[in-house]
C-alpha cells in the first residue's frame, strides 16, 4: 500500500514540476496569468490537470513539499500552490522564447508528431501545453498505472535529437501545435513555403524575398492550416483572460447584490399561513392574490396550476385570521379561472350558475352583495379553457398550526437552500470552466478575430 502511495506522490510531484516549468508556462495562459499568486489545489482537480490524483488535497500538498520544493511552494494551510520565486521564469526569458515560435491550428485529422516533422525537418522543436498532453493521452486524467512519462517530452520535443524509438513520434496532435526554429530567418523561410501553398496565414509577413528548397514535400493539406506568430497568440490569449476576468467580476457583483436583496427570504412567523381548497382548477396565482387581497394584504400565493388547493401566506397573523373567519361565514366560489370571487347567497343561485356553465353559456352575471363581491366578480368569458364543467364548491380555508406549519416552513427553507446552492456551484463553476478554457486550447478567440 505504501508503495502505491509513494508512486502516486512521485507522479504528482513530477507533473507539478512540469506544470510550473518554463516550457509549460509559456503555453499555459491560465497558470501564467497567476504566476505571482497562489493557485488553489482545486484548480488542479480538473481531468486535464491532475484529475483523480488530486482527489485528496493533503496528498497533493505533501507531494509538492517533498518532490518539487525547488519550483513549487505550498501555503501554510496546504490548500494552495505557487511558483517558487527563485526559479520563476522572467518575462524577458519568455519573450525571447516566443520570438522564434509559431502557433498552428486546423491541422489535418490524424496528424502525428512524425507526420509534422516529415513535412519540414528544419523545425527545431514541437510544443504542446501539459493540459493538452494529458487530455490526448488520458481522457479521465493521469493515472499511476497508465501514464507514460515519455509523453512529457512534448512540452518541448526536439525531433533532431530524439530517439527514433520514442513513443512521442506516434502521438496524434490535437488539431493545433506550437513549433520553434533556431533562427528567425528559418521561420520566415518556412512561412513563405507554407504561404505559397495557400495557408490561411493570420498575419502577413514579407516573405517574398525568401526562397526554399522544401517544395518537394507534398500531400499535406497546408491550405487549411492557420498560422499565427507566438507574440500575437500571447497577446490575444491575454485579452481573452482579461475578458473572462471582467465577466467573473461582474457575475460576483451581480450575485452579491441579489444575495443582499434576498438574503433572508421568507422569515418564520406563526399564524400567517392558511391552506385553501375549492378554487377553480385552471386559475392562476395572480387571480388568487387579487381574490385574497380583498380581505387582507398577501405576501405570497403557493399554488400549482390544475390544482384546487394551495397555500396563502399573509403579511400578518391578523390578516390570516380575518380570512379564516370570513370564508367560514360566507360561501365564495370561483365560476371561472379569472373570477376573483362570487358571493353565493342561496342554493338556488348556485344551481342556476352551475346550469349556465353546464349549458355552455358564454356570459353570466352574479348578484351584487353589500360588500361588493359582485363588483369584483368576473364575467364568464369562455376562452376555450374556462368551460371545464367543474362542480362549484365554496372556497374553504384553514390556518396551519403545529406540525403542519413546521413542515410548510421547512419546505420553504429547503427550496431556498437549493436555490442558493445552484447559484453558488452552478453559475460560478460554469464561468470558472470558461476562464480555464484557454489553458486547454486557445482556439475560439483566434477564430472569432480572424474570420
TrEMBL record:
GO terms for molecular function: RNA binding. Residues 267-451 form the XRRM domain. One of its GO terms (cellular component) is ribonucleoprotein complex. It comes from the Eukaryota. Pfam families: RRM_3. Keywords: RNA-binding. InterPro entries: La_xRRM, Nucleotide-bd_a/b_plait_sf, RBD_domain_sf. Gene3D superfamilies: 3.30.70.330. This is XRRM domain-containing protein.
Amino acid at each position: 500500500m505504501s508503495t502505491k502511495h509513494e508512486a502516486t506522490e512521485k507522479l504528482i510531484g513530477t507533473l507539478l514540476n512540469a506544470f510550473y516549468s518554463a516550457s509549460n508556462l509559456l503555453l499555459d495562459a491560465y497558470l501564467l496569468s497567476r504566476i505571482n499568486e497562489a493557485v488553489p489545489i482545486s484548480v488542479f482537480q480538473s481531468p486535464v490537470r491532475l484529475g483523480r490524483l488530486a482527489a485528496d488535497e493533503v496528498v497533493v500538498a505533501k507531494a509538492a513539499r517533498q518532490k518539487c520544493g525547488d519550483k513549487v511552494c505550498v501555503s501554510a494551510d496546504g490548500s494552495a500552490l505557487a511558483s517558487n520565486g527563485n526559479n520563476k521564469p522572467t518575462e524577458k526569458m519568455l519573450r525571447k522564447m516566443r520570438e522564434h515560435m509559431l502557433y498552428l491550428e486546423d491541422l489535418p485529422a490524424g496528424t502525428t508528431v512524425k507526420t509534422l516533422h516529415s513535412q519540414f525537418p528544419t523545425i527545431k522543436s514541437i510544443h504542446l501545453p501539459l493540459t493538452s498532453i494529458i487530455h490526448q493521452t488520458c481522457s479521465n486524467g493521469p493515472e499511476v498505472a497508465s501514464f507514460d512519462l515519455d509523453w512529457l517530452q512534448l512540452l518541448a520535443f526536439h525531433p533532431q535529437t530524439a530517439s527514433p524509438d520514442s513513443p512521442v513520434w506516434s502521438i496524434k496532435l490535437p488539431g493545433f501545435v506550437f513549433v520553434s526554429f533556431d533562427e528567425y530567418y528559418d521561420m520566415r523561410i518556412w512561412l513563405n513555403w507554407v504561404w505559397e501553398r495557400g495557408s490561411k496565414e493570420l498575419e502577413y509577413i514579407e516573405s517574398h524575398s525568401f526562397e526554399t528548397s522544401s517544395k518537394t514535400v507534398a500531400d499535406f493539406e497546408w491550405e487549411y492550416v492557420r498560422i499565427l506568430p507566438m507574440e500575437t497568440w500571447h497577446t490575444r490569449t491575454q485579452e481573452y483572460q482579461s475578458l473572462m476576468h471582467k465577466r467573473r467580476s461582474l457575475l460576483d457583483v451581480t450575485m452579491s447584490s441579489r444575495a443582499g436583496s434576498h438574503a433572508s427570504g421568507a422569515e418564520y412567523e406563526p399564524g400567517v399561513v392558511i391552506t385553501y381548497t375549492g378554487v377553480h382548477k385552471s386559475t392562476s396565482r395572480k387571480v388568487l392574490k387579487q381574490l385574497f387581497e380583498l380581505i387582507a394584504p398577501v405576501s405570497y400565493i403557493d399554488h400549482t396550476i390544475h390544482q384546487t388547493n394551495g397555500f396563502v401566506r399573509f403579511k400578518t397573523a391578523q390578516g390570516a385570521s380575518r380570512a379564516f373567519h370570513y370564508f367560514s361565514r360566507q360561501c365564495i366560489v370561483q365560476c371561472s379561472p379569472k373570477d376573483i370571487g362570487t358571493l353565493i347567497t342561496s342554493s338556488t343561485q348556485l344551481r342556476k350558475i352551475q346550469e349556465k356553465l353546464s349549458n355552455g353559456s358564454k356570459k353570466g352575471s352574479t348578484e351584487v352583495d353589500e360588500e361588493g363581491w359582485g363588483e369584483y366578480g368576473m364575467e364568464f368569458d369562455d376562452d376555450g379553457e374556462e368551460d371545464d364543467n367543474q362542480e362549484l364548491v365554496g372556497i374553504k380555508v384553514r390556518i396551519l398550526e403545529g406540525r403542519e406549519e413546521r413542515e410548510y416552513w421547512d419546505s420553504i427553507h429547503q427550496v431556498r437552500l437549493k436555490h442558493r446552492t445552484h447559484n453558488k456551484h452552478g453559475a460560478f463553476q460554469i464561468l470558472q470552466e470558461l476562464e480555464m478554457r484557454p489553458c486547454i486550447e486557445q482556439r475560439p478567440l483566434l477564430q472569432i478575430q480572424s474570420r
